[in-house]
């Protein structure tokens, strides 16, 4: 994941119904991959999503997994109005490091990095770290 291009509006219908239990649309993963394929093959794209196991490994040069302490995460999700089931499942997902383990299983271990995302200062540090990585990636791939 690198570069400065931003994926533009996706033209296709990328949902396949609505999940009443979680209160959210059901993403059609195959349609998402099809929709992004041409942009991703050009390179220089950053993808922001809460999971990664359905994205092709060839798309990414680096993967960052943001981690949050459960007490902080609980308050964030509660503020967003998550229902009880969605809130509980998200907290369990963080406790068991599901997204981190999914990333490690889906991509080469050396490209998967964890970043703390608890405080505003850490957000700034993360942005700086990712920006430095992007700058280096661009230098390495344009020389």
Specify the CATH class of the domain at 47-141: Alpha Beta
**Element-by-element helix/strand order:** EEHEHHHEH
Structural class determined from secondary elements: alpha+beta
- Radius of gyration over alpha carbons? 16 Å
Total helical segments: 5
Quote the beta fraction. Answer: 5-15%
Counting DSSP E segments of at least 2 residues, the number of strands comes to 4
* CA-based shape: globular
CATH architecture of the domain at 47-141: 3-Layer(aba) Sandwich
State the end-to-end distance. Answer: 19 Å
Biggest sheet descriptor: 2 strands, antiparallel
Helicity level: 40-55%
Describe this structure as you would to a colleague:
By secondary structure, the chain is an alpha+beta fold. The chain has a domain of 95 residues: 3-Layer(aba) Sandwich (Rossmann fold). Helix content is 47%, strand content 13%. The protein contains five helices and four strands. It has a two-stranded antiparallel ribbon with strand order 1-2. A two-stranded parallel ribbon has the order 3-4. Helix 2 packs antiparallel against helix 3. It starts with 14 loop residues before the first strand and ends with a helix.
Topology:
Blueprint: E1 15-19, E2 24-27, H1 29-42, E3 63-67, H2 70-79, H3 84-95, H4 98-106, E4 112-116, H5 120-141
Helix pairs in contact: 2-3
Condensed summary:
The protein has helices at residues 29-42, 70-79, 84-95, 98-106, 120-141; strands at residues 15-19, 24-27, 63-67, 112-116. The chain has 143 residues and is an alpha+beta fold.
